[in-house]
Amino acid sequence: MKEKRVNCFKCKYFYITWDKRFPYGCKAFGFKSKLLPSLEVYKASGKKCLHFEKKD
């Protein structure tokens, strides 16, 4: 069964940075990235993001 990809735009920890080199950020993990944070987490661990919490 294929897992659904985590949508960072719907996560309360996701934010857009002012850094053109690293435009996406994750407050839960504390990093900025060129890719969406959920993709970075998947690349590093092979698992979907476990910190995802839907925005209110």
Terminal CA distance reads 29 Å
Oligomer: single chain
Low-confidence stretches: none
Helical content class: 10-25%
Rg calculated over all Cα atoms: 11 Å
Number of separate strands: 3
Per DSSP, the total helix count is: 1
In terms of DSSP E residues, the strand content is 15-25%
List the helices and strands and how they pair.
Blueprint: E1 14-16, E2 24-26, E3 31-33, H1 37-45
Antiparallel strand pairs: 1-2, 2-3
Describe this structure in words.
The mean pLDDT is 92. With 56 residues, the protein is of the alpha+beta class. It is 16% helix and 16% strand. The chain has a 3-stranded antiparallel beta sheet, with no helix packed on it. The protein contains 1 helix and 3 strands; from the N terminus they run βββα. It has a domain at 12-45. The radius of gyration is 11 Å and the shape is globular. The N and C termini lie far apart (29 Å).
